[in-house]
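Local shape tokens

___
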Amino acid sequence: MAKMNGKKLKTAILGLEGQGRLLLEAAANADFLKIEAVADKNSTLAQKTAAELNCTAYDDYRSLIIQNHFDWLIVAAPRHRCDKYVKDAIERKFNILVVPPLAGNFEEAADLVRLAEEQDIKFAVANPHRFTKGTLALQSFVTEKRIDHVFFLTAACTIGNAPLPPWRSDPKLAGGGVLMHECYDIIDLIISCFGVPELVYSLNTSNAPDRKQRLYRTEDAALLAMKFSDAFVANIVAVRAGVTEAQTKLVKICGKNKNLTLSGRDFIVTDESGKTIERLRYGGDELSAMTKLLENFALCITSPDNNVLRSCAAENLNNMAVIEAAYLSARTGFCEEPARILQMAKVEPKITLAGPTTMKNPHLTYRPTPDNISI
């Protein structure tokens, strides 16, 4: 556990549904945090949660921010409802932790990162998958070169066709559909291992009944192809289908001598003949991963000189650039370059890996993860 010298960091949570529930549970059980306020547009939910945690309830995000001062603010509310208040919080020098995606589009994300840098505050994205045993095992194989000559990666994401809130179907409010919201962690995993692809090509569609309506809806299905080099390509297939709320995700990496497979509960290493060499069962550690994420963020606030912030917002600009390039490609019908989007914003994001690497990418600076992050 993190060593906080007995100090509890004061925090508040905006948004109590979706991933906000997991963050709330992890924060409530963390001995280095004190939840002083919660906010949600559903005032009944806010009041009930505040009563359970013995803290203050708000149904107005602006009031929570201007009437208090916190060591950090956890933002789990839909971004279109609170973006301007997040900027207010940054200007009041609150450290910020947001659930993915970082913003509704790349331009908004870059603006938030610049503002956070100007105010010299910690700003990160809550990517708990980075702290799961399966992800760390896969990253270790890649960055320590225990898999030779990776030439292909394929990922699949299937999402149940349960009803979504109306804003999720609106491109202006949601920013995107399955690619942005359901595949953000997959894109983040790929970039954390291999850097930003040179080229991106995407095809998107929705289940709207005609072409005109499809133009005004976020995508329910997407095919994303990525070229990293002449010797390495990758793809992601995502679809909203079926009647359940469950999600299934699969990532498979093919190398010369080994294949790596990361699924919902297993990390499997096989040889060229398909024989299993190693198997790690890791399912069910979502709460533990979120707790480690919060611990890392807390350590970077209390001891910034001795800790590296994992999944910082500047680093997540890589993800947003790939997503932006994918949506641009879907509109133009051509391959697009994420690096061009990063260069237009005049940013040089850094990326933190699970271990040292010799990979080179002119748009990234790699730094190893510190040894004091527990796994």
Summary: Residues 63 and 178 are 32 Å apart (CA to CA). The first strand starts at residue 9 and ends at 14.
